[in-house]
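Reviewers of the previous submission asked for a worked example of the structure-prediction workflow described in the proposal, so we include one complete record here. The input consisted solely of the amino acid sequence. No template or homolog information was supplied to the procedure at any stage.
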Amino acid sequence: MAILECKALSKSYGLTKAVDSADIKIEAGRVVGLLGPNGSGKTTLIKLAAGLLSPTSGEVLIEGMAPGPETKAIVSYLSDRDYLPDWMNLNQLLDYFGDFYSDFNREKAIELSKRIGVVDNKPLKTLSKGTREKLQLVLVMSRDAKLFLLDEPIGGVDPATRDTIIDTIIKNYNPDAAVIISTHIITDIEKILDDVIFINEGKISLVESVDDIRAKHQKSVDAYFREVYKC
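From that input alone, the workflow returned the following structure tokens.
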């Protein structure tokens, strides 16, 4: 059974279709890049899979179930926005995530926090933007979830921080789970991807493995994406 399946999935805002008849099936053990320009529908698709939005038509299934309490218990979602309260410190965040998610691995979160340099209990407002983004990712990746939905995890941070974030993603997810990474920064992320989904103006134009793209087109994913969308 696919971990994530979308069947003719659409989401409209008035006359605008943010996601237009998407058909996607993602199996366990895959790291998938959801790739598209800004405003292409990536965040809407991620939020539909996370159960934060309701489809206009079609359906989205997580392990065969429609989004609800059962699926939210096995989906770990990283927002593209910094949502951590400024007044909280690391211990308070660990307590919060531990209370909220039964699959939260506190020991893993502490270990990863040390690795990114968060070792004390200063309020989050004293941390840099990059450190806050890394910490937010650490908390999300410290769950034993089945599906990780990461919305623009490397957007707006410096190259060194990107490397740390990518390393955190690839080394700290359950191989029986699937990871979907939404991004418009393809070069830095494609080295960890198994498959890619191209989306633009709400439409899925490609669902293919990275190896097949390179073999068929003799190009990197980034170069092929630029060719397809004439970037």
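The domain at 4-229 is CATH 3.40.50.300 (Rossmann fold). We consider this example representative of the routine output the project will generate in years two and three.
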